Inverse folding.
């Protein structure tokens, strides 16, 4: 293919049509359409629904549509955000995409440092999938926030808030990673070689800081004991992220490298790393819940979440992958394990977020969960199923990953194995 | 202060009680008679008070003792342990005269209701707690001037059709009795038209089905209301009244320990085509007076006779046949006239500004803090208002706050009764076939067969009758009414919280959600009044919850004819 | 100035007047979940006898409010007297404050597109003789709003004569809703858990003053 040289990079010369309308991109667009529908639905329910605006609109008493909206407001549920479960699928997907994506980037950096050459050869592709997932996570959260007021993050920041630290974090992290990708792709090898080690070390440092800030985000919520009492939350996030990240790497390897000679070796490397981290995660799961407040632990281990926990999470993230990868076999087993941990990892994040909100705050006096009128049952378990809009946005975020990855790949051929050093 | 609540339900009041006494509905009279028995037998009642202020007490005492209204007897009927009854009687008398058996609210509960209230009042009186601080107080009523109008006299006017439906039917009659006569066609003269003002009989009176057929039978039903209530929807003509914010209401004098006069002023002009009732009546009367006068002249012999001597116009005006005459003044003018006559112009200014007035208000009123206000100083409150017999100095005894209430109770008073005393034996009632003293009659009690329930009704603090049924501010806090059913019985019937059940009585059936709870005694169910409207004009009340009067049977209390609200038997099934 | 509220909750009769007054006074969005203040109910049976505890609740305006610590844009902030408020125009709806609050005091007001909660009616309560809408309407004198720093205020005079406790004190947020221990012994035993610490004014004042000094630099005028 013809290439254009620009700033040390080899850019593929291709037509706009090839760039924007190839099969992968089209599939990505379809998923993005889902996202758009989801955004429309969420916004409509949250801000524009008649029921959400019913009270002030009561000033026009003869309008039948408004009467209906007021009736919905009084007898139904108004608005989209449930006060008992503020963080929902948006946060789940945000966590999943960002932690997994950052995990891939972290693992690649570690691999290069520890001279796992096969990984280093495929670094470009892995890092691009990582950054795509980070973008997808940020996309998900952007649909949840009121972006019109984001300027106040800069104008009146609260520097101690975990939530605020996201801003400088990703403003630094993303350019940094893009620069790392550039270093992998660039022809200016002398230059790249000299920067390689310091950038690598910095990269690991930044990644650790990132996971620390993410853990701070959750552990600052003193009321949600699942998050505050889970031991060493930073490391829990890192280890659980690594498991899914290795799964992503396995899947990417299947799509990008299965016809190459290095495939078997690459997959075996991924297999061994996954085995290590799955085992570590398994140990963590066993001991982690011992320190968590029993009210929360009970809901997840023996309560309404137990089916999702054991079949959706333990089985898919730990048991099945372990069985597949405990012995060195054909790469297909690693692939099955990879798919399993990718799905199971998402379930794990779902349990973490929904589990944290599952124990109601209404036991304020230590005498039982309160209800808000006699004619109600007091709830000992909070759960609201995600709205269709949220699910569509999550599906759409996969499209974001696909589109960004494919764009990089079409322009820079990140799927190619590159010699390192 | 000690509070004892006797109720089939563990109400919000019961929650704050020192003692909650669950009781079978309809058995309160047995309870009170047993309390009286204990007070008499154990001689803990206020003997000096009784000696000075009762008449025929020996008859009552004999009756109570000979009827053997013992606590053990009452326990079998009411379900209240005998020991509890004894203790309450002793505690009550120990606190007397500052002990009250609260008279109760809401139209009658059961057939023996008159005797029940009488027995309650007598029991309080036995402690001396009448017209004294801490007892039953009558309070003082501040006078208002008169606004007189002449009422026309018609020769052919007949007495109320319901006059004989009970022993002593009062001036306001008996609605259920009256309605049943009209609906069943038993009225002595045809009643073909009806004006309904502010009331909503479809929802507020037992046996809604009969109310509906009564309205449907009539030729003309005119409803004056602010809301499209169920009754308004059955009207031939609706004359919309504006709400209280759009009109001036009659000035009211509120009697009590701290009496006051209050006024409700208009804040905006009436909206759309609604009018205050004063104007509606004026307008109607202006149109109807002359045509009705023509009919009167044709059939009324007394009027015909008078017209032989007097000029027609003069007679018409002076004898009240101009039906618009009482409504010619604006309410504000009438209010001013009634108020200024007694209190003067300056006070009128204060009333308009503050909305409330009582003599010396500006000097008496104090704000202590955001939760406490003093309206009258302690020594100026009207706890005792009855005329004392001559030997006592009212100032020395009634307005000196250092005097012990027990001593105040013991003074000889003039009660507003024929004998000027507390009357234990009502000979006038005996003449009408009513027991002159409270008697428990087993045959009056409605027994609850196995598998059925007695239905009782009531309120929650935030809803006002059925007037607030369409109010979104209240409905968003409590969307619909629920059926209270004893939790153990609910379990036996496999009914859980939120299940829809059908409640069926002899006169109707409703569907409602269930609320199994330990807060109601067995064989009894309850749900609050004011829900279940069928009017489509009420957006939020339409088919929301269940109406109690749809299932309440229409029996009346035999002494005064009020509706018995707590004697309906129902069956429950899950749907 | 350090604003707080004392709740003599044994007087509460669940009439809902405070809930309605709050919503109307502050124009809160229509909807059952959109409550700034509410009455929490715990009911059941003790040895077969029914009981019910009524707990008037709202935002505690904690001195160490976790909702203020986590807000990225300082939309959730301390106003004068330590009243915790939300600047609706700065709220990005990250809902971190809703997650941080141990008392479920916050909710999303869709008409304001921001998170909303009790503000101690600071548009009417801070003037001489003024008070919150809920206190003004309560028929049974449950509520007393006032300034903890003013020795002559109703709330300090009340707290000096009573013992009191807090909701979820173990969260360490230093809440300023003072629940007065019922003088009825039965109700006190029934409505206060044995883990709850009962306080007196002499004991709590120095601790709260210290915390106030520590945080009041953040309190906007």
């Amino acid at each position: 293919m013809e290439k254009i040289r620009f700033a040390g990079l080899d850019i593929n010369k291709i037509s706009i049509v090839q760039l924007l309308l190839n099969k992968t991109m089209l599939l990505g667009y379809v998923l993005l359409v889902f996202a758009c529908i989801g955004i429309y639905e969420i916004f409509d329910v949250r801000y524009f629904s008649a029921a959400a605006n019913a009270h002030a609109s009561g000033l026009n008493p003869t309008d039948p549509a408004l009467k209906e909206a007021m009736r919905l407001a009084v007898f139904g549920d108004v608005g989209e955000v449930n006060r008992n479960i503020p963080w929902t699928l948006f946060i789940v997907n945000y966590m999943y995409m960002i932690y997994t994506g950052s995990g891939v980037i972290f693992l690649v950096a570690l691999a290069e440092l520890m001279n796992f050459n096969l990984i280093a050869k495929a670094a470009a592709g892995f890092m691009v999938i990582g950054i795509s997932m980070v973008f997808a996570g940020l996309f998900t959260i952007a649909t949840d926030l009121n972006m019109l007021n984001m300027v106040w993050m800069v104008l009146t920041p609260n520097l101690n808030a975990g939530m605020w630290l996201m801003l400088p974090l990703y403003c630094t992290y993303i350019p940094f990673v893009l620069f790392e990708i550039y270093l992998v792709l660039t022809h200016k090898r002398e230059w790249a070689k000299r920067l390689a080690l310091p950038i690598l070390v910095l990269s690991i440092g930044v990644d650790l800081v990132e996971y620390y800030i993410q853990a701070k985000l959750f552990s600052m919520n003193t009321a949600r004991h699942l998050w505050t009492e889970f031991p060493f939350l930073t490391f829990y996030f890192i280890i659980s992220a690594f498991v899914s990240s290795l799964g992503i790497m396995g899947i990417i390897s299947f799509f990008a490298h299965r016809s190459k000679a290095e495939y078997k070796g690459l997959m075996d490397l991924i297999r061994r790393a996954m085995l290590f981290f799955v085992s570590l995660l398994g140990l963590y799961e066993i001991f982690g819940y011992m320190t968590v407040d029993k009210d929360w632990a009970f809901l997840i281990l023996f309560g309404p979440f137990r089916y999702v926990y054991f079949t959706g999470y333990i089985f898919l993230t730990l048991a099945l992958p372990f069985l597949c990868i405990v012995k060195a076999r054909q790469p297909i087993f690693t692939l099955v394990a990879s798919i399993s941990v990718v799905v199971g990892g998402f379930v794990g994040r779902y349990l973490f977020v929904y589990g944290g909100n599952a124990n109601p705050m209404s036991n304020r006096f230590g005498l039982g969960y309160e209800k808000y009128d006699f004619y109600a049952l007091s709830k000992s378990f909070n759960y609201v199923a995600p709205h269709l809009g949220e699910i569509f946005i999550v599906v759409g975020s996969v499209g974001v990953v696909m589109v960004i990855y494919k764009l990089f790949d079409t322009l820079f051929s990140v799927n190619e194995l590159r010699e390192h050093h | 202060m000690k509070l004892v609540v006797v109720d089939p339900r563990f109400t919000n009041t019961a929650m704050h009680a020192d003692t909650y006494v669950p009781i079978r509905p309809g058995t309160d009279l047995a309870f009170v008679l047993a309390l009286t028995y204990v007070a008499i037998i154990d001689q803990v009642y206020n003997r000096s008070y009784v000696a000075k202020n009762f008449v025929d007490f020996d008859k009552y005492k004999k009756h109570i003792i000979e009827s053997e209204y013992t606590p053990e007897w009452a326990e079998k009927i009411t379900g209240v342990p005998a020991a509890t009854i004894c203790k309450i009687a002793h505690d009550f008398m120990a606190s007397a005269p500052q002990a009250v058996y609260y008279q109760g609210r809401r139209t009658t509960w059961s057939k023996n209701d008159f005797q029940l209230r009488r027995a309650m009042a007598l029991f309080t009186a036995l402690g001396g707690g009448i017209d004294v601080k801490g007892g039953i107080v009558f309070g003082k009523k501040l006078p208002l001037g008169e606004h007189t109008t002449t009422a026309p006299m018609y020769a052919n006017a007949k007495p109320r059709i319901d006059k004989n439906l009970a022993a002593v039917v009062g001036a306001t009659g008996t609605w259920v009795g009256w309605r049943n006569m009209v609906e069943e066609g038993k009225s002595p003269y045809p009643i073909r038209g009806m004006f309904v003002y502010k009331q909503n009989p479809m929802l507020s009176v037992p046996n809604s089905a009969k109310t509906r057929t009564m309205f449907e039978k009539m030729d003309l039903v005119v409803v004056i209301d602010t809301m499209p209530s169920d009754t308004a929807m059955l009207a031939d003509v609706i004359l919309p009244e504006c709400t209280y914010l759009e009109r001036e209401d009659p000035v009211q004098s509120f009697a009590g320990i701290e009496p006051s006069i209050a006024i409700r002023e208009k804040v905006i002009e009436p909206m759309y085509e609604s009018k205050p009732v004063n104007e509606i009546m004026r307008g109607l009367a202006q149109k109807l007076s002359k045509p009705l006068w023509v009919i009167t002249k044709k059939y009324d012999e007394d009027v015909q006779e008078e017209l032989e001597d007097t000029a027609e116009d003069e007679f018409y005006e002076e004898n009240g046949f101009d039906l618009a005459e009482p409504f010619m003044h604006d309410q504000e003018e009438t209010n001013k006239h009634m108020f200024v006559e007694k209190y003067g112009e300056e006070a009128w200014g204060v009333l308009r500004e503050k909305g409330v007035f009582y003599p010396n208000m500006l000097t008496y009123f104090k704000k202590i803090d955001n939760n406490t206000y003093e309206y009258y100083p302690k020594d100026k409150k009207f706890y005792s208002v009855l005329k004392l017999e001559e030997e006592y100095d009212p100032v020395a005894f009634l307005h000196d706050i250092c005097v012990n209430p027990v001593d105040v109770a013991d003074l000889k008073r003039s009660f507003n009764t024929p004998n000027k005393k507390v009357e234990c034996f009502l000979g006038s009632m005996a003449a009408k076939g009513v027991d002159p003293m409270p008697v428990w009659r087993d045959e009056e009690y409605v027994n609850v067969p196995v598998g059925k329930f007695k239905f009782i009704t009531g309120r929650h603090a935030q809803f006002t009758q059925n007037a607030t049924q369409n109010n979104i501010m209240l409905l968003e806090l409590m969307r619909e009414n629920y059926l209270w059913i004893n939790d153990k019985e609910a379990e036996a019937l496999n009914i859980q919280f939120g299940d829809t059940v059908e409640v069926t009585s002899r006169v109707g059936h409703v569907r409602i959600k269930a609320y199994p709870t330990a807060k109601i005694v067995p064989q009894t169910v309850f749900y609050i009044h004011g829900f279940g409207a069928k009017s489509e004009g009420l957006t939020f009340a339409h088919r929301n919850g269940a109406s109690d009067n749809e299932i309440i049977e229409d029996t009346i209390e035999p002494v005064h004819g009020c509706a018995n609200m707590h004697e309906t038997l129902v069956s429950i099934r899950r749907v | 100035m350090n604003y707080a509220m004392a709740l003599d909750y044994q007087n509460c009769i669940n009439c809902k007047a405070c809930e309605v007054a709050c919503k109307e006074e502050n124009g809160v969005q229509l909807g059952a979940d959109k409550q700034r203040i509410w009455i929490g109910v715990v009911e059941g049976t003790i040895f077969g006898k029914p009981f019910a505890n009524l707990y008037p609740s709202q935002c505690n305006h904690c001195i160490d409010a976790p909702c203020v610590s986590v807000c990225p844009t300082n939309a959730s902030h301390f106003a004068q007297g330590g009243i915790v408020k939300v600047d609706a125009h700065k709220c990005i709806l990250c809902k971190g404050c809703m997650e941080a609050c141990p008392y479920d005091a916050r909710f999303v007001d869709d008409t304001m597109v921001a998170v909303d909660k009790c503000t101690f009616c600071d548009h009417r309560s801070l003037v001489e003789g003024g008070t919150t809408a809920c206190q003004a309407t309560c028929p049974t004198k449950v509520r007393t709003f006032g300034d903890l720093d003013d020795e002559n205020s109703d709330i300090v005079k009340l707290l000096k004569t009573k013992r009191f406790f807090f909701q979820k004190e173990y969260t360490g947020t230093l809440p300023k809703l003072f629940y007065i221990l019922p003088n009825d012994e039965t109700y006190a035993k029934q409505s206060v858990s044995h883990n709850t610490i009962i306080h007196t004014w002499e004991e709590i004042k120095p601790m709260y003053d210290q915390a106030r000094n520590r945080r009041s630099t953040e309190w906007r005028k």
